[in-house]
Specification:
CATH class: Alpha Beta
Helix content: 25-40%
CATH superfamily: HIT-like
Order of helices and strands: HEEEHEEH
Strand content: 15-25%
Number of domains: 1
CATH architecture: 2-Layer Sandwich
Shape: globular
Largest sheet: 5 strands, antiparallel
Number of helices: 3
Length: about 140
């Protein structure tokens, strides 16, 4: 796939929280899941094994930092990590804070909802994400 056909080569993919020469961290626009982040490798590669050992370490360090901030600030019941790339074959990791009351829990966010959306919970998490975005950027700058 050329960079021209790849949506993560031609656009950021969400609200950019942090960016450096290797990767960017974005808050994804996923309805009902405000604490849904992606670590996107900037260079177009399809698979994790396409990266050098140093690049793999850089990528996973970013995934861990996002996870740590989400755990510390939101105390979710679980963090989901995924690097599927079936629809967008550009290396990116999903880092998603999950809560027992979310509309899909315990199923994946891509499954059918199991209950109605708890608008109050979503709004509360979205409000916290304003600070979380800043904290993720600070963690990455260390």
């Amino acid at each position: 796939m050329t960079g021209l056909a790849c949506p993560l080569c031609t656009a950021d993919g969400g609200l950019v929280v942090f960016r450096n020469e290797d990767l960017r961290i974005i808050q994804a626009t996923e309805a009902g899941f405000p604490a849904f982040y992606r670590v996107v490798f900037n260079r177009h590669v399809a698979e994790f094994s396409d990266l050098s050992a140093t690049e793999r370490q850089t990528c996973m360090d970013a995934v861990v930092k996002v996870e740590q901030v989400l755990r510390s600030e939101l105390q979710p019941v679980k963090i989901n990590l995924a690097a599927l790339g079936n629809l967008v074959p550009h290396l990116h990791w999903h880092v998603i804070a999950r809560f027992t009351g979310d509309s899909h829990f315990p199923a994946p966010v891509w499954a059918a909802p199991l209950r109605p959306l708890d608008e109050a919970q979503v709004a509360a998490v979205a409000w916290r994400c304003i600070d979380i975005n800043r904290l993720i950027a600070q963690a990455m700058a260390l």
